[in-house]
Specification:
Layout lengths: L1 H17 L1 H6 L3 H9 L9 H17 L8 H13 L2 H22 L5 H83 L4 H25 L8 H5 L8 H10 L4 E6 L7 H21 L6 E7 L3 E8 L14 H10 L4 E6 L5 E8 L12
Parallel strand pairs: 1-2
Antiparallel strand pairs: 2-3, 3-5, 4-5
Helix pairs in contact: 1-3, 3-4, 4-5, 4-6, 5-6, 5-7, 6-7, 7-8, 7-11, 10-11, 11-12
Length: 377
């Protein structure tokens, strides 16, 4: 509004100054000045209505055969329609302007100059309409760019939130596997140490040392999961990221805790990506932890891992009768295993065997690593 007030004031003063002689003789011309220029104050709010008002004032001026410099208001009104209205409105305003140009050229052009006057005025009106259309197009383009920037920023924030949620879920799964497995082993070793402290003290000492080793390993893995452990720390070299090659050490650990376990590894695991090897290790670790926690003494477990260039098959079977449901409603073990398997587009099955015992079977598809699988059961 401030810009429009300034524009109208400037045009009023300049055009009035240009016709100051006529104003002394015919002061009523100020009425036409006001009728042509004052509607421009509302040109942004109602472009077509303002153009109609200015065109009506110009037609009245034509009827009384008066020429005024304030007719420039028609060009301003036409530009505003082109800059703020749609294409049909621009064509209508252009047609009205062209009709006014022809009428003015017929009445006020000198003899033999009709065509030149009509062409010149048409070119000026066309330039005003084209400039207004370009301004509208540029404004729409800038609005679309701004909207796209806002959407991209919103999508970036959403991706960041999803990444944070995924990282929290990954940390929660790893923490569950680390804490649950190592605590189960430490509890079993501590119970064995208490039982053997009077009969075989040397075995008690060995069991307690293994408890301490398990605790240190658990702390090291927890630091790695939380991103605290630096790569140059000695513990990082002693305890690298778990992989398929360390499954035998994992089974040795549970055997020490009192669970007879056997590993059968088929295929070459060297081609398996590091992340997939960690997934295999965590799946076997969780299955062994559940067996250690929920089966009676004397239970035996067998771990079979088969590696091929495109798939990995994991099968963990025990022959014990579980003392309780290994996947209670509030548990996170088997749901976490499903999530790990689904990350490789694979399937997971966990359940009791007909003749007694429990089986966990997983199939990982290395060709679809990172995609959300739908086959977890």
């Amino acid at each position: 509004m401030a810009v429009d007030v300034t524009l109208v004031t400037a045009l009023f003063i300049l055009t009035a100054f240009a016709v100051r002689i006529d104003l002394y003789d015919r002061p009523w011309l100020l009425v036409f000045q006001a009728a042509l220029l004052l509607p421009l104050l509302w040109r942004r709010r109602a472009p077509l209505a303002v153009f109609a008002a200015v065109a009506a004032a110009a037609f009245a001026q034509w009827l009384v055969d008066v020429q005024l410099p304030a007719d420039i208001a028609l060009l301003v009104a036409l530009y505003t329609v082109a800059a703020h209205a749609g294409r049909p409105q621009v064509l209508l305003a252009g047609a009205v302007s062209e009709a006014g140009i022809l009428m003015a050229s017929v009445r006020w052009s000198t003899e033999g100059r009709f065509l030149g006057a009509a062409v010149s005025l048409t070119a000026i009106a066309t330039a005003a309409a084209v400039i207004g259309t370009n301004m509208r197009t540029r404004r729409a383009y800038l609005a679309s760019v701004e909207d796209r920037a806002v959407r991209l920023e919103r999508e970036r924030d959403q991706r960041a939130q999803l990444a944070v949620a995924e990282e929290r879920a990954r940390i929660a799964r790893d923490m569950h596997d680390i804490v649950s497995h190592n605590l189960s082993v430490m509890i079993a070793l501590a119970d064995a140490a208490v039982f053997a402290q009077y009969r075989t003290p040397d075995k008690t000492t060995t069991a307690m040392r293994q408890v301490a080793d398990s605790g240190r390993q658990s702390l090291t893995e927890m630091r790695r999961v939380l991103g605290i452990l630096r790569a140059d720390e000695p513990d990082a070299l002693r305890h690298p990221i778990p992989c398929i090659a360390q499954l035998q050490s994992l089974l040795d650990q549970v055997r020490t805790a009192g669970l007879p376990a056997r590993l059968r590894l088929a295929g070459d695991p060297s081609h398996v990506p590091t992340a997939a090897q960690l997934t295999v290790y965590r799946l076997v670790q969780e299955a062994l932890t559940n067996t250690l926690k929920h089966t009676p003494p004397g239970t035996r477990v067998e771990v079979r891992v088969h590696c091929s260039p495109e798939t990995i098959t994991i099968d963990v079977t025990d022959d014990g009768r579980t003392s309780q449901d290994p996947d209670p409603p509030h548990g996170h073990g088997i749901p976490g295993m499903r999530e790990r398997t689904a990350a490789y587009g694979g399937t997971l099955r966990a359940g009791p065997l007909p003749g007694g015992g429990w089986r966990v079977s997983a199939h990982l598809d290395l060709s679809t690593a990172g995609t959300a699988g739908t086959g977890a059961t």
